[in-house]
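Hi,

I'm pasting everything inline rather than attaching a file, because the server keeps stripping attachments. The sequence lines come first, and each chain or strand is labelled.
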Amino acid sequence: MTMHRGRVRWHCRRALLELDIVLTRFLERDFDQLSDAQLVDLQDLLNLEDHDLWAMVNGSTECSEARWMPFLGMFRESGRESTIDNKG
Amino acid sequence: MKVAKRSYDAVIVGAGGAGLRAALQLSEAGLKTAVLTKVFPTRSHTVAAQGGVAASLGNSTEDNWHWHMYDTVKGSDWLGDQDAIEFMCKKANEVVVELEHYGMPFDRLDNGKIYQRPFGGHSQNYGKTPVSRSCAAADRTGHAMLHALYQRNVRANTQFFVEWMALDLIRDADGDVVGVTAMEMETGEVSIFHAKATIFATGGAGRIYYSSTNAFINTGDGVGMAARAGVPLEDMEFWQFHPTGVAGAGVLITEGVRGEGGILRNSSGDRFMERYAPNLKDLASRDVVSRAMTTEINEGRGCGTDKDHVLLDITHLSPDTIMKRLPGIREISIQFAGIDPIKAPIPVVPTCHYQMGGIPTNYKGQVVAPKDGNASSPVAGFYAAGECACASVHGANRLGTNSLLDLLVFGKSAGETVVEDIKSGNLSLKALPEDAADLALARMARLENQTNGTDVHEVRLAMQRTMQKHAGVFRFSDLLKEGVTKIMEVAEQAKHTQIKDKSKVWNTARMEALELDNLIEVAKATMTSAEARKESRGAHVRDDAPDTAEFPNGRRDDEWLKHTLWYSEGNRLDYKPVNLQPMSEDVDPIALATRTY
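And the predicted assembly:
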């Protein structure tokens, strides 16, 4: 299954600013390097509700799928680097 | 260009709380209802609402809607319309109980009733003591509300068009609204949604500011579309700056933290709110707290190396209370401030949070505009609710927990009005004008063919910085004047945005350019309206309208007790009276008074 990159990119627009911030830097730095297979995994992760995704990013709940772990690592790194980054 | 057409009884733009509540009313009445949304409904920004929804249930402390109404009028600095405020406060218990019946998992008291907590600006006995009026589901109230409403809509067969972006309002030769144009993101194709009624519930436009608690989707799409279609925007100078955005990130720390006992402290550790609001202290109204914080920072009592923030202290609360009542706050603080609030206070600054103004409506959710000598004549076929609308219940300053109430009450009310108008035969499917899609297609074509244009990201950043500098928490006469010139220059650049990627499918660059068209309308309206209002009131505080004995808080009721109406065409202003008369004889008007806490 091939995901459209633009679609996945749009799904990085979230309801919570917390996620917008951590995803912004990720989109700039890491997104274009993802393989098609990674893109499918990312889309599955992005299908989570905002609060559930945020809970995994901030570590308050455990990641339920091993294939999502690398993304969460990238998000956390992006979040730490970001202060206000007004891409939205 | 051939444009596909779809016909509905009602089309709703936006699937946050207001849109879903309105849709539910329509679908359950058996009307053919379409909801357009650029993100999946449960990914709307309502999800972010943490604090709760106000209702005078009186479960924890004695309460009644009269006190709630008084607090809301006072909170609005008397700019709110008292008929709409009475309507909202009276309806609060009904819409909250209704939501409970839809399955909303409110926190409970031991006796099984809905748990209620105190919130800034809400009081007993007309401002005497804080009251517990906020009904919450932990700190996920908005999330729980949106899910309850979405599931109910699925049951009612509401038809969702997910990842569709509305482009422009369609008005006929009479000025009546007959639908919207919209683009399906997956294909880039434009369609016409032809409807008897069009309801805008698109949320706010907090992204016009550089520092904002709003998610990136909050681009004021409905407000921008209304402005382009010649509908005036009301009271756009009034923006709420939430006192507690995490310094450097903007992410919101809910007022509920102060409701649970959180204290604001300056660099000396002083609880400075005792000086600014001796009665309600840290729970005073948001604008009062934001200005107090800004004053502390401006006068050198800020914290940190740059003395640019204050501290929100909850270290005196038990870890159990923090974990149970405020779990999300702890994670936000750790991620964005690197601080565990159980151990150390959180660095916070006032941050743009909520748009008090918007598309003018009455309490029925009908969009109103001046026509033939009537300042509030309904625009046939057009309705709005939630943050994009201005009913006006928040006036110059909104109380926390009144936004979720606003979207429930006025979402439902707009839906009820549409049902009545259609069933009574007042609304029918009027013919589409020949040029129905022209405005939207012209905007798309302009973007397609633009050469030597401007960069969307750069123009948006210029807008955000201009708004932050020239129309922030405190406003200065000279900066506002300069701000109008600057924002008009930025608006000129926005007319010439260029995108490199011209692909049709999932083109996020195109979507961002189209969103900027909406944001810039809001920014122009805000700056122009703010420059013109030569008084201080609620969230709008100017250096040249200071607190004096003659005009306490700088408020000038003699000249400025009126609503601003801004028209995009000609960047023109008009005004209309504030309705100081409640809708029923159950209550006397809340007389003008100085707003102190």
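Residues 17-29 of chain A form the longest helix (13 residues).

If the labels don't parse on your end, tell me and I'll reformat.
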